[in-house]
Amino acid sequence: MLGTFQQSHIRIEVEAPQIAIHDSLLYSERLQQWLWPQRFSLGLPEQLHPELTFTTWMGPVAIQHKVEVAQPNCLRLLLSQGIDGYHEWYWGDGWVQSRLEGISLLPLNLGQSLSLLRLRQFLASQR
User: For the chain, how many structural domains are there in total?
Assistant: First the structure.
């Protein structure tokens, strides 16, 4: 894999209950809404579950995701292709935490920060 090893760990406050955050991270329809402009492979099931594999695209860069853990307050994705690493999400009432590590040419910290801001805006619009 070409690129540099990068790691980023961000926790933000959100005005949303745990269940709203859960639904926004584990239900594919909602996930696709707030992660726009990222494109998702077709045929995703309604809810993410362990062993599910899907692909997203950031422009021409494909990123394969394999769901390793999907629980009421935790999601762990193993990443390959455009990012070689993992992405963990933890959440509770009023907060979301994201940890991303991998080798990539993409600026992972910037992408992670923008994603968390989009999630916060999406959750605010759902109230």
Answer: 1
Residue 90 lies in a domain: yes
DSSP-assigned beta bridge partners for residue 98: 10, 89
pLDDT in tens, 28-39: 999 999 998 889
Q: Which domain holds residue 38?
A: 17-125
Kindly report, residue by residue over 79-97, the tens digit of the pLDDT: 999 999 999 999 999 999 9
Report pTM: 0.93
Tokens describing residue 104: 């990539």
**Separation between Cα atoms, residue 33 and residue 47, nearest integer Å:** 14
62: left (phi over 0), alpha (psi -120 to 50) or beta: beta
Cβ pair 42, 52 in contact under 8 A? no
- Give the strand pairing for 84-92 and 39-40: unpaired
- List, in order, residues 6 or more apart from 41 with CB less than 8 Å away: 54, 55, 56
Q: What is the pLDDT of residue 36?
A: 83
Structure tokens at 44: 């995703």
Q: Let me know: does 4 contact 113? Beta carbons within 8 Å.
A: no
